[in-house]
Every structure is written in C-alpha cells, then in structure tokens.
Design goal:
heterodimer, A: about 375 residues, FAD/NAD(P)-binding domain, D-Amino Acid Oxidase, Chain A, domain 2, about 25% strand, B: about 375 residues, five-stranded parallel beta sheet
Chain lengths: ~375, ~375
C-alpha cells in the first residue's frame, strides 16, 4: 500500500522548498506530485526578480528572510552549479508627487525591518542606470541587496537537495481527488495511484483554488495571465531591475545579457489563460521605449504568459486551516511566490511540526480575512 | 490594421499550389514568405523529380518553382505577395504579425492557410557547433543557390534521399565525399541514388554514426563509431576521418511553431517528423478557418505538398463560400493523386501517421 507522511501538490518553487525543509527537519516518506515537471508552471515563467521593497510589513519580512537564505543557498543546498544570484538591486521609479509620498512611507517601513533601501533623486538614479529617460520619473527608491536569481537553477537546487534527503517525486501525474473523512484527510488519488496520507500541502500555484476545492477547503484566490518577454542578449548595461508601479513595467537584464520585462493587463480575466497577445507586445514596447529608450532598440526573442495566483490583499496564505485538519497551503502570492520561496518552506515546516510561530506569521493565516481590523493591502505591485 | 480574406503563410510548393486554387475559386489572397524569392526549398533543387506527370516528374525543382509562380500571374489583381517578410506570430484573434524590411506590423486575416514547411533535424554529439558542420539542406542552398562549396572533403551523415542526392551533387561540384554514414542497418533512400554513389567509390557505412567532431576554429576531423542493434555505441570501434565539412541529413521536422502558438490542437507523430496539427478532412485545424498543408502537417515529398496544397486550397475555399468551378472533378482527381503518392511500402509510415492526426470534428 502506498503511504506518505505528507503529500505536497505542486513541484514549483514553493512545493520544492516545502519538501526540502520538511525533509531537512527529519520527516520521512514525503511525496511531491506535479502534473508536469519542476519549473513547468509559474516558477519557470516568472520574471526572476527578488526584492524587499514592499509596502506592507508582512511582505517586507518574508522578502528579507528569503534574501537572507538566497545569499548562501548554493552552499546550504550543496548545489554544484551557480544559481545566478545577481544582487545589483531594484530601482523603483516614482512618477508623481503622490507616489513620492508612498515611497517615503515604504522606505521608512523597510528600514525599520532592516532592509537597506533608500530614496533617490532623479540625478542619483541616473548614476545607477544611466540610460534611464530622466523625464519619465520624478524620484526613485533603491535597495542594493535586491536582485535576480535564475528560477530554473534555483528550482533544480531545491529539487536535488530534497531528493538527496529521500523525498519521492512523481512527475507527469495529476492529483484528481483528495478524500476527506471526519475533518481529516484520508488519501490522495492521482491518475496513476492512491496515496494514503493525513497531510497535504497545497502548493499548486495557479491551481491553488481548485486543489482547495478538491478537499472542500475554500481559498479565495484567483489566477490571472501576466505576460512577459525576453530580448536578444546584449553587452551588460543595466545592473538593477528597473520597475515602476504607475507606468506598469519591470525590466531587468539577466546575467547572459538578455532583458526580461513584463507588465500587467488591467483587463485580464480571472482564468488559467497563459497565452501571448499582440496587445502586450505593443504596450510593453511603448512603455520600455519611454522609460529605457536604449533597451527599446533590442529585438524581441520570445513572449510568454504565466499565472499570478492573486489573494484579496496581494499577500500570500502560508497557512493551515480550521476547515480541515492536516491541510496546509502556500498560495496566493500574487506574482511573488518565487522570491518568497525560502521562508515559505521554513514556515510550512514549522506549521506541520506544530511549532509556535513568530508573531508576524499569524497574519499569513487564511483567517486574517475574517479579521475586520486587518486592512493591510499591498499596493506596490506590477 | 489591414484586413485580408485569405492569408497564406509560406510560399513553397504547398502554399503556391493552395494560392492558385484559391484564386481560381475567386478569393483574394495574401501570400507571405520570408525569402527573397518564392518557391520554398524547390529553388535549390536542381535535380529532376520522380513520379508522375501530374507532379512535374522529370522537371527540375527550380523549374517547378517557376511554373508554380508563373501560374499565379493571371490573378495579379487579387493577389498580394509579401516577400522577405517573416511571420513572427499568429494570435487567437486571427492577427498575424509580420517583420519585413526592418518594420514590424500587424494584419488581420478572415482565414489562414499555414504552409510553413519544415526545418532540418540536428544530431547531438560533442562539438556539433563547429564551423563546417551543416545540414544537408543548407549545403544544397549554399551550392545550388549561391554557388559556394561547403568544403573540400566532406562526410555525409544520413542515407535518406536528401543525403544521397546532396552527396552526388557535391561530387558533381568537385567535392570529395569521403564517406556516407547511416545509423540504421539499411540505406534509407532510393537504391538508384545510392548505387550511383557506390559506383563513384563513396563508402556507405551502415550501423555507423558520428560521435565527436574535432577542430580548433573549424572542423578538422570527426570520430565515427559503430552502433549495435539497440543503437548504442560499440566501444572500441571508434575511427577517425579527416574532413573540413560534415553534412547532417537526418530528416526534417514540421515548422509547427505558429500553430502551436495559437494553441491549435497538436499531436506528436513520430512517423511524420514531430508535432503536427490535428486536421479535419478539409485540412481545417482546431482554430476555425485556419487550415494547414504541406510539410507542416507531416514530412512528405514536395510532390505530395503540391497536391495537398491544391486540395487544401480547394476545400478551404469551399468552406469560405467560394466553390471552385471544377470542384468535384478536382477533388476526386487530387484525392486520387495523393493516394497514389502514398501507396505501397514507402507510404506505410505516412499513412499510419496521417491516420493519427485526422479527426472528424474539433469538438
């Protein structure tokens, strides 16, 4: 009979980090199931940025703890290759007086948590990214410890480390049912086998709501297509990720020389569409030509889409639930699951082992939605 | 955004044939091709075709291309040709984006025939990116179109018809073909071509492949190895051959990318070279009013591509409300031609593959 101490659904970065951390803590018989393969979902489609400049304390803490891990991830995970952590910062542009004020407040919050971000004038920003259009923004904020990591290599690093610790992976296998009895999990059924277990981690990314419904757990998240493009490679010319919430753009040069850039579509439907549109290419080109005219001269190699799994307040659920014993979820990252993966795995492990959580982590619980006093809403997103 | 009734992507044998029939049926046609001249791969084929009169047997590929191109002349008024224009994307809302003369632009089509053809497969071995290592089709283009020799001493990998014909053409052009390697235990192409090579002293080594290439800035020699019945290397059988060019002719794979991008239902069919669209009998894909024909629907000969192009043009026109004046006669005749081309032992793989990709409806 097929038994597991816990079944992790989804081998994206969150599921991989959860499995690795659980195994490191000593848990045996961990099974990870993915309907495709590692990085085939949102992780492999993401913008590959890691930042700590957020507008809510919760997101700031999650980001900082994750960056702390990324800095020695290669050694901790015993990974032979380089994860391509390019720690040259995020430069976030403000385009109005109102946004200037928000940035003042954000940087104050970030500094109070120990994040070394700072406010910059247009002139100071131009020193860091000389090819910025000085007329396109009014001021900026900058954090030099933010940066870029290759999601494919980072996923492989977690995957190999988890495998070494004895985690079992089933790829190209889809979970079809989660059987529940008396508020407890009895078994997980896939298209290939039945696995008896009393614990499940929902790390299903874009399909988190559906994997909740399978167990009768209601998770108020939805998925939305966010498109992205990559250019031909060119000589190294841009250190930090350049980002603007008001202009709707993020744009980063990755180590092999290509630029990655994306923007959100305000008209995107709530569904699992991940196709490309010509409208994205048009709008993206206009935006980047305005802010980074030199980057606008590069040729586009490819465009693609991926699911943001969005929560009501743009902050994740890393949570157990009163709805069902043994059911844990890591979802609703609202586009930022890759950069929060290290802390995700650590927190899920603490929850599974019944540890007392740090204070901040209680706000990651899905119960926060019922709390009328909880009104923090993350606005610093593209 | 300019709007067009029927856009044909690809001006090779399939696309040109489809264009002619659609024009005869009364449609306005926009034909887009990325090359400087229409004709697709026909224009580098200086050899005479086999087969029957209906598919221009005994005529050289380059001459067939000219016949197909000239056949469009009388419909100039309804035909719009974009050359040196690369279709970069096909979207679900029938928008086609094009890159031409350093400009990117969008057009919208009411209906589309995708006839993008195929690309050459590559082989994985150490140093396979050294200058001097070519696809056989690339060598054909280099020699027959541009008059440039690939090297002085060449080894060919693959004994399909392309590998055999290109080897012969290289010898005609003064290149020494040192050996022809074939991984399987028998010659893949017509024996009449292979016999010519053997008579000219080219050793044909079956159950042998290339393992490694050597060279500082360009190819200097290769290491070959024999294969067992499971296609594994037999250790100790490695041999070196010095050469300044290596020609890889291990088959073609459909250029499916535009169809895949539009999320059209695809199926991987090994017998036909890779990913191909699921097709209804009228060549319609799962995206309404988007049709496909020629090598993009499975690798066959140029002769089949021409007949398939005509048939797709005929049936696509009909489903768009333009019935060809000789519809019934043509349909019967073209279906017969295709069946003839695919009959016999050489057509087994093709018949098997096509069966897998055919659907009655796209529901």
């Amino acid at each position: 009979m097929n038994k597991a101490s816990i079944v992790v659904i989804g081998a994206g970065i969150s599921g991989l980090s959860a499995a690795y951390n659980l195994a490191k803590r000593g848990l045996k018989d961990i099974v990870v199931i993915d309907k495709a393969y590692i990085t085939s979902g949102s992780t492999g489609r993401c913008g590959a940025g890691v930042r700590q400049q957020w507008g809510t304390a919760l997101n700031c803490i999650l980001a900082k703890k994750s960056i702390d891990f990324f800095m020695h991830a290669k050694e901790d995970l015993g990974y032979e290759k380089d994860i391509e952590f390019k720690q040259e910062g995020y430069l976030i542009l403000s385009t109005s007086e109102a946004e200037d004020k928000v940035f003042d407040k954000n940087v104050q919050l970030q500094n109070s948590i120990g994040i070394p971000s700072q406010r910059l004038t247009v002139e100071e920003a131009l020193k860091i990214v000389p090819h910025l259009n000085p007329n396109a923004f009014t001021s900026a904020s900058f954090c030099k410890t933010d940066g870029h990591i290759n999601p494919f290599l980072m996923s492989e690093a977690y995957y190999l480390a988890a495998k070494k610790l004895g985690v079992t992976f089933y790829f190209f296998e889809e979970v079809t049912e989660i059987i529940v009895k008396d508020k407890s999990i009895e078994k997980v059924i896939t298209d290939k086998r039945v696995i008896y277990t009393d614990k499940v981690v929902n790390a299903a990314g874009g399909f988190a709501r559906e994997v909740g419904e399978m167990a009768g757990v209601e998770i108020p998240v939805f998925s939305e297509n966010h498109e992205i493009l990559v250019t031909e490679p060119t000589k190294q010319m841009q250190g930090p990720m350049v980002m603007s919430f008001s202009k709707n753009i993020y744009c980063q040069q990755v180590p092999h020389g290509s630029f990655l850039m994306g923007r959100s579509n305000p008209k995107a439907l709530h569904d699992h569409d991940i196709s490309s549109s010509w409208q994205f290419l048009d709008e993206m080109a206009k935006t980047v030509c305005n802010i980074l005219p030199k980057v606008g001269q590069l040729r586009v190699i490819r465009t693609w889409g991926g699911s943001y799994n969005i929560s009501p307040d743009h902050q994740p659920f890393i949570s157990d639930t009163e709805q069902l014993n043994g059911y844990f979820m890591a979802c609703g990252y609202s586009g930022h699951g890759f950069m929060f993966a290290p802390i995700t795995g650590e927190l899920i492990t603490e929850m599974v082992f019944g540890d007392k959580l740090e204070d901040y982590a209680k706000d990651l619980n899905i119960k926060r939605l019922d709390d009328k006093n909880f009104t923090d809403f993350e606005q610093s997103v593209v | 955004m300019d709007k067009f009734d029927l856009v044909i992507i690809g001006g090779g044998p399939a696309g040109l044939s489809a264009a002619r029939i659609a024009l005869e049926a009364g449609l306005s046609v926009t034909l887009i091709d990325r090359s400087i001249s229409l004709g697709g791969q026909l224009i580098k084929q200086t050899h005479k075709f086999f087969g029957s009169k209906a598919q221009y047997a005994k005529t050289r590929g380059i001459d067939i291309a000219n016949i197909l191109i000239n056949d469009l002349d009388e419909y100039k008024d309804r035909l719009h040709i974009l050359k040196e224009a690369t279709v970069v994307a096909l979207y679900k809302d029938y928008v086609i984006t094009v890159y031409q003369f350093n400009k990117y632009f969008k057009i919208q089509a009411k209906s589309i025939i995708v006839a993008t053809g195929a690309s050459e497969k590559v082989l994985a071995f150490e140093n396979n990116d050294l200058p001097g290592i070519y696809g056989a089709g690339a060598v054909q283009t280099l020699m027959n179109l541009y008059g440039v020799l690939p090297g002085k001493e060449v080894v060919m990998v693959g004994s399909g018809n392309i590998g055999l014909i290109v080897s012969y053409q290289m010898i005609q052009a003064g290149v020494k073909v040192k050996a022809l390697l074939e991984a399987s235990d028998h010659i893949g192409g017509y024996l009449v071509h292979a016999s010519k090579l053997v008579r000219l002293g080219v050793p044909i080594l079956t159950r042998t492949t290339v393992k490694k290439a050597y060279g500082k800035n360009k190819l200097e020699k290769i290491q070959t190895v024999e294969l067992d019945e499971q296609w594994n290397y037999i250790e100790g059988t490695e041999t070196e051959i010095s050469c300044d060019a290596l020609c890889i002719s291990v088959g073609l794979t459909p250029l499916h990318q535009l169809l895949s991008m539009a999320e059209i239902d695809m199926i991987y069919v090994n017998e036909l070279g890779g990913l191909i669209p699921k097709l209804k009998k009228n060549y319609e894909t799962s995206m309404p009013r988007v049709f496909a024909c020629g090598d993009v629907t499975g690798i066959e000969e140029a002769s089949s591509a021409m007949v398939e192009g005509k048939l797709a043009g005929l049936l696509a026109s009909k489903s768009l409300g333009f019935i060809h004046p000789e519809f019934e006669l043509l349909e019967k005749n073209l279906v017969e031609q295709l069946n003839n081309l695919r009959q016999g032992p050489c057509g087994v793989k093709i018949r098997l593959g096509l069966e897998k990709a055919e659907v009655n409806s796209h529901d």
